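Exam revision sheet. Question 4 asks you to relate a sequence to its structure. Input first:
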Amino acid sequence: MKTKFYHLLNWSLPYLAICAMAYIVMYPQLISHGVILGTDSIFHFNRFYEAAKQIQQGNFSYFQSNYCFQQSGRVINAVYGPFFAYLNGALLGLLGTWFRYEVITNLIVYIGGGIGMYQLAIKAHSSRRFALLASLLFMNIGWLPRWELAQNMNAWGAMLAPYMVMCGINMLQDRQHPVHWLPLMTLMTIVIQIHLLSSIFFVVTLVPFFIIGLIRTTNRWEMIKETALAVISTIILTANVWGALLMLNLHNNIAGPADFNMLKNSLIPSQFTSTRAYLIYFCWLLFLIQFIYVCCHFKQSLVNTMVTIWGAIIVIFSSIWAPWEKLATAVPSLSHNLQFPSRLTVVAYPLLLLGVAISATTFVQGDHFPKLHLRRNITIGVLIFTIVQVFVPNTIDVFQRTARYQSTEVLNSSSAIAWVTDNRVRLRRSVHDLYPGQLITMVEKRSPDYLPVPKKFINKKYIRSFAYQDQIINHAAEYQHKVLPHGGLQLSWNASQAGRVRLPIITYHESQLTLNGHRLHNYQRSSIGAPFVHQRHGKNTVTLYFRVATWFKALIVISLVGLILLGLYGLYRFIRALPGFWQQITA
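Answer key, structure tokens:
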């Protein structure tokens, strides 16, 4: 019995250390009960609350936003992680407050990313000690901490990135069966349902692994078939995502996300911080040492050589040393699609840290130094020092951002934010209130994403975010909003005189607009898709519905059925594996 307990404890220690790291980093927020709020927080909280209300009321509208985003009817969730939004909406409904939601999702991101990095290093034959150190380092750099610090969706891509690299490593390690279609399909489906941009990074990252695997495999035709099966299955399971993008873009000129200066958002060496677009000097030095080590021992390990060189290329390409000004001029769409070149570190850091774990293991076991314990202690000491270098500023950042919640500022960033209230006390209370909808009525984000731009405004220069604030946010409170059955939205108002008025709602080609019982067909729209109608004196009522194409309804059913079957199969495999797993960790 004692032996089994010892083995169980020994197996669980790395996972306990990962959980402890997550807890320590989050400790300032946990003891202060502060909620870190920023520009992205307001945007995503609107998305998730919209999904929560639809689930609560049983009144679903896949495209039209009826409860949030100023009840404007604009499309967001359908083209931005739709099923993930509903999952977060269900979680918010269960937890009740934004504070609890932040704490639980922070833990999921930190622990999920940490375990993924640990398992990745173990798969590449790193020792458990160095696999753990690499995972603790990973938890404190790049985009992974940004979910707690700013609710950036790139954090979820960073959390899943180690699992993606596992698929790549398998292509190098297993010459007979380099591609396992089910894990690859599952991973790509999950990331597409969460963050489409991260899925593009994942595909690009896997390309060189696939090419090398295809060259080395003893069963090339089998590898191609497995890959094709994974691709086709992923397309089926994510039909709701690409189908929505297709339907929305067929008849609408959809506004892209805001443009950003590419060079200013590239990876920068830093003295103190290592999240988002910064990386401390010592990490640069660590990665440089790793690169030099691999160059000197490139025949020692194909996996180490591959992940280090590929990771180095990506991290340099994400940095200020890449010609981003020229690239942005040559390909203007990059400035609003990629926006931040530092996003590429989502895939670069797992690759480089995996290389560090492999090299550290090889170095300690090799014959480079005469004394085993000395080289082991030096290597561990360097990695622990690096962890402290990134952990301390990360925790301080959490402390400062949490403290800002108690200040007069409340928000950590106010860019693109429209303040509806000056009552900071009420704003703070809203994140702990069991009615989380209060928060999103007090601060609102003027986001131009996915607005339908009429043709005559396509080439005109104007800032759509300010147009949205002027036309929607500033006038939404002047109307009474009511959510109708079957996903409809109703606006009511009393007019002192008849005449032309612009409504604070967004209409698309697929929208059905009815004024005082009469269906409108030919009406003018503003620069962001807000309709102009002729009101009558007295009471006026408008209803808005979004017509969903029959073929898209079929795609949703196909995607949902496929995901349910995948979930049931995963549960079946998990239950079947439990006895053997328990026996393995206690043996």
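Marking note for examiners. The mean pLDDT is 93.
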